[in-house]
Amino acid sequence: MRTAIWSYYGDDMQVNSVELDVTKGDAKPIWEKLQKYLPVYSLFQADRKNSDSDSEVQDPLHAAVKEILQDEDISRTLDHVAGIVEGKLQEVATRTLEKLREMSP
Fold first, then answer.
1. Is 83 inside any structural domain?
2. Tens digits of per-residue pLDDT, 44-76?
3. For the chain, the helix, strand and coil percentages under 3-state DSSP, each to the nearest 5
4. How many structural domains compose the chain?
5. Residue 43 in domain
6. What is the per-residue pLDDT across 18-41, written as a single tens digit (0 to 9) for each?
């Protein structure tokens, strides 16, 4: 599809860089969805100086876990689990408030 667009416009295409603040407003959920489809890169030891305090040295599987968690099925499952946990927490909070109201009318 990209090739067709580039071929259609050819040299007439005018491209401008525009910086967007993806931490606010409607852009935030869109960016979060797009990030799932972006590749995950990590530098190898030969590419940079590493020290024992670097998180990647301490936890070499961190990059792999990060990439695995971007899988849509896993993300959906974790979202489902998070919803269940939130529901259970809400139940506990509601029961706690009811007991407090009973004790202090």
1. yes
2. 656 556 566 666 666 767 778 888 888 999 999
3. 65, 0, 35
4. 1
5. yes
6. 898 888 888 888 988 888 888 877
What does the alpha-carbon distance between residue 19 and residue 53 come to, in Å, rounded to a whole number?
33
What is the residue range of 20's domain? 16-103
Residue 79 included in any domain = yes
Q: Determine the Cα–Cα distance for residues 55 and 65; give it in Å rounded to an integer.
A: 13
Measured CA distances, 39 to 48, 63, 78 (Å):
20, 11, 20
Residue 6 lies in a domain: no
CA quadruple 20, 23, 26, 32: dihedral positive or negative?
Answer: positive
Joined together, the tokens standing for residue 32 give 């979060």
- DSSP of 32-61: HHHHTTSPP----GGGS---TTSHHHH-TT
pTM over 0.70: no
